[in-house]
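FAQ: What does the model actually see?

It sees only this:
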Amino acid sequence: MTNKYQRPAGAFAGVNGLANRTKYQDDSGATPKRAVSSAKVDGDLNYVIDALNQIDEASGVRASINERLDVSLNADGTLKLSTTGTLDEWIVHVNPGTVTRVDNSTIGITGDWRAVYTVNRRVKLVVSGLALVGDVAEVSYASGVTTVSLIDLLDGDGYLQVIGSAPTQIAYGPFTGGPRGNAPRRFDGIRIPSGASTYELRGDGTNLVFKHDGVPVSVMTENGLAGFAPTSVGAAALSDEVYDMLVPTGAVMPFAGSAAPTGWLMCAGQPVSRSDYANLYVRLGTAYGAGNGTTTFNLPDMRGRSVFGMDNMGGTDAGRLSVANTLGGSGGAQTKSGSTASYTLTVADIPAHTHDGNVTHGGGTSGTGTGLYYNPADTGNRVIGKSTGGGGGHSHGITNFDVMPPFVLMNYIIKT
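And it is asked to produce this:
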């Protein structure tokens, strides 16, 4: 025992006070008027003193006197816990088992400590030599570990902190009047350790100052920003939501590079995973191919193809394309060949025209047969005519010709 409460000098010691509790010792000076001897009184006194020492040792490190004694009454006359306890005295949790870091505001403690780390109890952690004070927001127990989530973790300078590593010490204080203590505690900034460096964000009374290892590197004022380099903020600094607003999933665009950048895929008609590219699958479905039918789907195949707007885009058919109005439909060719249909000319198809001819004769001549002839017996003008051909149709062949305009070749990529 610690023996914080000492026995009075000259008291009967014996083996110890507790052993003398029932011991009676003869006293030659005693008379019948004396009920107990001095030894019996000493034994009783030593018993009380040793009992006080045992109680004191069993209680652990003492909490605030206000926390232990200050109480108040509920409306029905029952006692309720005080919410005005001193907050700078702590009960150090001795041998709590293994204490681990779960995340920036949560710790795990082996064993069931739900009766100690109850909601709204103030807790102090020592993390990397720095004392942090916060309030319990949630507590749970599973698989032999008590998980404690804290809010408003502040260091001694009023900086809002995070749990960067496993605490080396944990202590608990009084209950508080709410999830943020008796009254909301003011914090003046945020301090985040990162490796050997420390980053801080804190107001200086006028501006918001960002510091690296205690040195101001940028300032936010009412008139704008100072010290921020716009060129240093790239796509990685944008949230997914903002990035999707700028370039939605499923957007297709020409790309002059030879390999698709991060977050994009080539439009080569290839099958890709439905789970790996779930957002893209939601937008495309199987319009460009069903892949293996279960776990993959196909991307648009833009190899050697150009893009036309769907003829019925918006629900009204413009009548400009003869192909089917199906998303992902394709057609066309680089060259074209063919021929005209067979057709037989009639006299009506021939434009009006004349043929001139001269005939010279030296006397009466005549001709017979089916050829041209002149009959000298006839007088006056005569028209000499002859029809040829069998009246059949004819056609003209058309060789291949290029239908492509001047072009430059690029890749097409699609946003995942």
